[in-house]
Amino acid sequence: MNLRKTREEREEKKARKIPLSKYTKGGKISSLMALIHLLLLAAAVGISIAKRGNAGIYIGILVFAVLISAAAGFVIGVNSFKESDKFFRYSYIGTIANAAIWIGILGIYLTYI
User: What is the C-alpha to C-alpha distance for residues 71 and 37, in angstroms, rounded to an integer?
Assistant: First the structure.
């Protein structure tokens, strides 16, 4: 009788737990996009330094594409908070990183206008 009651209590306890077993899909995508954006920005800065500031229009187009893509990564990251019963670590990382990249590129642009 006592063993049976403890088994029932265990099953009840398991049923009440929230299964936080996975990270949000949107958060993973947003974090991966932020990592790619950082790599592309580092490549653009490296090429610009190697060319001594005469990198041309292609680097400008690359940075503009990163700007637009960072905004998309931010939106994906924000939308990932709507997923229920998941861990939000990558959602926070991706959202904040994409916002920082977007603000950084915009700040550089506004500095040199």
Answer: 11
